[in-house]
Amino acid sequence: MPLTLEQLNAASPAEALALLDGLYEHSPWIAEQALAQRPFRTLAHLKHALAQVVRTAELDAQLGLIRAHPELAGKAMVAKNLTAESTNEQSTAGLTQCTPEEFERIQQLNAAYNERFGFPFILAVRGPRGTGLPKREIIDTFARRLDNHPEFELAEALRNIHRIAEIRLNDKFAAEPVLGNDVWDWQEKLAEHSDPGFAEKGQLTVTYLTDAHRACAQRISHWMRDCGFDEVEIDAVGNVVGRYHPAATGARYLMTGSHYDTVRNGGKYDGRLGIFVPMACVRELHRSGKRLPFGIEVVGFAEEEGQRYKATFLGSGALIGDFNPAWLDQKDVDGITMRAAMQHAGLCIDDIPKLQRDPAQYLGFIEVHIEQGPVLNELDLPLGVVTSINGSVRFLCEMIGTASHAGTTPMDRRRDAAVAVAELALYVEQRAAQDGDSVGTIGQLQVPAGSINVVPGRCLFSLDLRAPTDAQRDALVSDVKEQLAHIAARRGLRYTLEESMRAAAAPSAPAWQHQWERAVDTLGVPVFRMPSGAGHDAMKLHEIMPQAMLFVRGQNSGISHNPLESTTNNDMQLAVDAFTQVLRQLAEEPQP
Hints:
With 592 residues, the chain is α+β, with helices and mostly antiparallel strands. Helix content is 42%, strand content 15%. The protein has helices at 5-10, 13-19, 28-34, 43-55, 59-67, 75-78, 84-92, 100-117, 135-145, 150-173, 178-190, 211-227, 273-287, 314-319, 338-344, 375-379, 417-435, 470-491, 510-522, 537-541, 569-588; strands spanning 231-234, 240-244, 253-259, 295-301, 362-370, 383-389, 391-400, 404-405, 439-441, 445-446, 454-455, 458-467, 494-503, 506-507, 529-532, 547-552.
């Protein structure tokens, strides 16, 4: 019989410890300390308690935990000395059926890894879906992580140990994240569509109104119909819009959603997670024959990333009346105008103004999104409540000095443009760090016609400055500009500075942020508040209605805009549960 929380909470200390035996390899101290926090409200509460014991443990205890684990396809497997849990996991991943070549490669990696780090390589081989990683992916991950910094790799090993324990707990409690699996599967299937030139390499790229993009729109629209949405359409800019009607005609709607386009060679979850989580919630409402006092409008925004044309947030912008007709004349790298692409896709350009929403018809906008950063991952937290979407300013700049001979120009007589920009980059790093939540980046740095034996006379560079409030952002911008002028004057250089983009910060509406906080607390997970450094569709809707976002933890240290972007079926399940709880909370409130 599956274990229940009621049994665990009621058991004696010794009995409870026995019930949790095998979660962490030969390390009963973790469960013993976590059990002091009983009673556990939810399974997520228990998982967090276990992870926090490890997180706050001394380094020697953490290393002991890691070293208690067997090597992948190592001597213990060959000698059949693995625990029952490890045997099942390595068998599920196919490691017990390695070819001689695969086995030899893994042994080489084991030796190199142990020599570099002093502990065995740990990987949750049952993977983010719980069904097992392919051997090729295991070997590739093994090789990739050999390049990590030792402190980072120790943390990555512990994170994988927690995922292993999570899956083992699921097994003990017969807890299957059914809706999380569905959301995970939808994203995998949608990722089958990718633009030419990337699809052949196994890379995911879906840019505005390509064949892959239109195929994604069709798939999402069909799945929405299968979920029971009452109305589904692909609108005049390519947004996929599904509406689930309220219990009473004339009631307002809750708007939610995110984008389905991607960056080039990107990940499967950026944006798309925010479409499929509410879709799963609507499907469950439809299956139970339930209507809410408000309707639900889920929008798969057609464009957010600005990859094909220089028009970001085109999909969400159209809903607030922010569509610039001049964009229609923009051309992609193949010379195809946006107008031609829209006409080819069968979109009715004349209808774009009709897409503008009346905010009086909506309660507000909420968005679920993968974090795209390492914070939740490092804290062993599955969810984070967003306090504000950072305001940002971008500049395209040039530092101008004098190109001269690298061998004959003394160091104190150089007017080196690149060194000046390097000095500025160090200042940006130091200044942004003073605020805690501010960030600054020089992401592009180029010496035109540079040569190995020439002191750089010109340096083109970008500046990206962000902060949770406009005032904090503007103070950062002011200080960076002042330092830029100081560096240039001291070094005898000139510079140009062109502002290319300015976006206002979008603080979460307090009442809506509180809805997410209540939902997360109900799940038994600590409420963690954090700003969003990245821009999101929510910041466009923020201009006409209240908004708030929920972040979901990413795997692989939260990397995003990258093929390694990932999250788990369990974290997706928690996102669905949190969204469902928000719907429940709203339904219990009096509707104006």
